[in-house]
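Reviewer 2 asked us to include a model.

Predict the structure of this chain.
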Amino acid sequence: MISQEYAVKYQSNLAGLILADTAVATALTLSDKLQKWMFPASLIKWYIKRKTPEDYARWSLGFFDMKEDIREYLIQEQLRMDQNEFLNVMDAVLNFKLLDLSSIKVPTLVVLGENERKAVFPHADKMIELIDNSKKIIIADAGHASNLENPDEFNRVLNEFLQENGL
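Predicted model (structure tokens):
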């Protein structure tokens, strides 16, 4: 999400763009909208404030299919954030809106793990629809953290994209 915003605002700084394991907005599909209605940002933040750091780290990463050793690594990394920092991150994620991705003109690679939540795939398709000169690649044997779950395949795909585009 951060890279999308950067790409829209500072396109002249880019030669290419890689969007990995991300979404275009928090309310793109009907499923997204229902989830946002049932679990508004205020309720999620209220929940986080009442949990221990480990509980909310486990909770926030529990929505994604990923290898357990990767999940544990990400939990430990998330625990390095204090609760206010995590609340700021969640606020940014929960309030993310669809950007003018059609303004992105650089070669763009959209990467997803094959075991990513199915709700994320329409987001990748929307990115491909909006960004000219973009393509989608699915990383085998990976979920939401495709760069960590299958780093060899992820790096191969990235290197191929960079070489194809003279980057």
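The chain has nine helices and three strands. Residues 2-164 form a domain with the Rossmann fold fold (CATH 3.40.50.1820). We have added this to the supplementary material.
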